[in-house]
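User: Hey, my collaborator sent me this sequence without any context and asked if I could get a structure. I don't really work with proteins. Can you help?
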Amino acid sequence: MGFIDELKAKAKADKKMIVLPESMDKRTFEAAEKILKEGIANIAIIGTKEEIEANGAGYDLTGAVIIDPMTDPNKQKYIDKFVELRAKKGVTPEIAKEQMEKDYMYYACLMCKCGDADGVVSGACHSTGNTIRPALQLLKTKPGISSVSGFFLMEVPDCDMGENGLFVFADCAVNTDFDSPKLAEIAVLSAESFKSFVGAEPKVAMLSYSTKGSAKHDDVTKVSEAVKIVQETRPDICVDGELQLDAALVASVGELKAPGSPVAGHANTLVFPSLEAGNIGYKLVQRLAKANAYGPVLQGLAMPVNDLSRGCYADDIVGVVAMTAVQAQQQG
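Assistant: No problem. I've predicted the 3D structure and written it out in structure-token form, which is a compact way to encode the shape of the chain:
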């Protein structure tokens, strides 16, 4: 059984309600049909009667909950919650109503906030910013977490590194400015995500172009300081750095460059020092090693909301819905 099949099995074991707000895209309906037939999750689709008829024609949506944002009987409850959460930012009932009708992502997040749904998947035809912004405004981050980050679960075929070819790569999608505390936070969240999805103990490598002081620069110091923060605040997490990529993954190189390291040569969770490095890194592995890249999965939010690539296929949506459902299970 492959990783995605194991993930679907986990999702099926405790089905969650996942909202798909992009009824303006046919891929949403193709994915919903597959999810419902496989029993991966319960699905709510937000859209007017006209949008559902125009884009959902020909798809079997038996079992899906269709939420018309113009006539939904729960709408006033969501408006009230929106105002409660954002009144200090000037949100009135009129503004809330208009925003919810114009941008279904707000509607989806309010469904989660009010306990009517467990997670949201969006981004097939919206930017990452348009997916994350409503979630941050309405759901916010987990207690003690300063910002949201994004990771990819990488499944590399015929690979004896990582956890039988499984890795978490972070942050590849969200943050543009990294300092040591933020890198440390990403490392902790990524370790937790690896354990949650893969079920094995994370071995976190904080990556750099330097290994254990082989180069001197502020960019190197930033990474080594992040390692110290994780070691001091979360001694239960196996983390080391700064490590070059080969030292992190190849046992012989790890023994040579970082002797005695609990991570070098055996890393399965890779924390990149910048968004550029993370984004380039996951795409290199995806394209050159023919790896499956599941994500970007967002971590740090109070409830699971996940992004899609605008070039995604329906099967990608199915996979991210399964991951979102598993995240929802972990959050109780």
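In plain terms: The mean pLDDT is 93. You can pass these tokens on to your collaborator as they are.
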